[in-house]
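Per reviewer request, we include the raw input and output of the structure prediction for the construct analysed in the revised manuscript.
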Amino acid sequence: MHDPASFYAFLAVCSLLAITPGPNMIYVMSRSISQGRMAGLTSLAGVMVGYLFYMFAAAFGITALFIKVPFAMHALSVAGAAYLLYLAWQAVKPGGRSPFEARALSYERPRRLFVMGATTSLLNPKLAMIFLTLVPQFVRDQGGSILKTSLLMGSMVILAFAMVNATVAIGAGSTAKFLATRPRLLTLQRWFMGVVLLALAARMVVDAFA
């Protein structure tokens, strides 16, 4: 690595994104609350398929399109920001629900949980944003082999998200029970999540046109 400051900045951004609730985390959390920890972890295994797909796709050249066509990078950044704004609104809108609120979900077998997790992950625009726009920017700062650096930094993204989501899968049930009798904490959690998502969206727009 040739730019330690950029590398540590990358770690900080990954950590922030990893703890920001998105479709994958909400899916894993919901399954863990409704069916138990093993269902949440099985769902997480499927979710990891999407991470691996986007990591290898970016590392082996899809990113080149976005680097050579600036408009495409701007368009994806704006789309990603719009998606984060949508998530922020879903969090704070009147009648909105915290991801920690228990939901009545039908029972699914492990194979179905895995497939649903993989599908949710592959269709998650947050992953496209991370691997097709965020990772390449930091890869360029490091020099050396682009492929090797892309795979290394992509693996770090996957590790960060896997650790956070595994923690969610294991602890979501007990957290949901704790918050069920504390509606004010649920409201506070929703607004905190909304503010974080709004800040990320604003930063993406600024960076896209800087």
